[in-house]
Amino acid sequence: MTAALTLPSTREEAWRWSDPEAIAAAVALPHSEARPDPACWWIDRPGARIVFRDGVLDRDASDLHRVTIRAIDGGDHPLGKQAGGAGWALDLAKDAAADPVQIVHVASGGANHLPCEIVLAEDAAAEIVETYLGIGWTNRFARLRLGRGARLMRSVRMLQAGGFVSLREEADVGEAASLVAVFLGAGQAGSRIDAAVTTSGEGAFAEFGGALLTAGDQRQECAVRIRHAAPNGQSHQLWRAVAADTSTVSLAAAVEVARHAQKTDGEQSLRGLLLKRTATVNLKPELEIFADDVKCAHGATVGELDARALFYMASRGIPDSRAKALLTHAFVADSLARIGDEAVRAAFEADADSWLEKAL
Length: 360
Prior knowledge:
14% of the residues lie in helices and 47% in strands. It is built from four helices and 17 strands. The protein has a 17-stranded mixed β-sheet that branches. A hairpin with a 2-residue loop joins strand 1 (48-53) and strand 2. Helix 2 crosses helix 3 (320-336) and helix 3 runs antiparallel to helix 4. The protein is globular.
């Protein structure tokens, strides 16, 4: 049963663009018997294929491979603690490498919650692909722990047709470990990506980014903070927002560098594209630097499609809708380019293109 949800006030900076009313509306959505078929969303890759329906494992439709089901604490975050309980876990020993793990989450209305925990020992490597479908409030908590030299590639696509998807991510990246997480919001549901990442080991690398695409009166947001707690770390946050109609995308990305985390290299790139002037894109890059030998930079821009480029393409006989699609595809593409697996990257790009066909 869902505990009473109390979110921080929108007066708090990290929650200034949050939309608690959208969560309440998603919870009120009645359950539907019509559910998307997970089999249509698998990417042609080996490894685990797991289906969760309303936060509950569908064992008949799943092949767990190395994934296990166990109790997981959701912590004290307002969203994360809602998801505490039975969840999925991936634990890899030293030098282990797992085939990709694909997970499809299907929601049918109301609220559903699910935690997960990924623990990679020294020099272990894993790839996780998650897809969100259906309607309702889908709430997830993820705890990631990467040991020395471990590598994790995480790709998440939010394609729900209605309701709200909230993701709380907490990650600890150890010495010389690498975490790359890419998110695509190309459905019709509202969303919030809420992440706290700590590079706790020397030479750790963390990249968080992706693309949020909105239309109608939809709202999507992310609030990501990467804290460098050890020297010689690197982080990249590359986010792209595309907003049509009267929709809103809000991107808040912060980098914090501890006093002893010298030689840190932190970079942020936040860019928004307005397909109509009635849409809104909010960008908030933030740097908090307490060390004196670092290289940190951020950039934030919001604009429209280049009129000169559209004119040039029209002069070459390219229809206006096609020209806009090409330019918007190019705008979004670099946010998905960090997905290492070519088949996974192609699937995400196809989802983004499908969204563009409907929005333009």
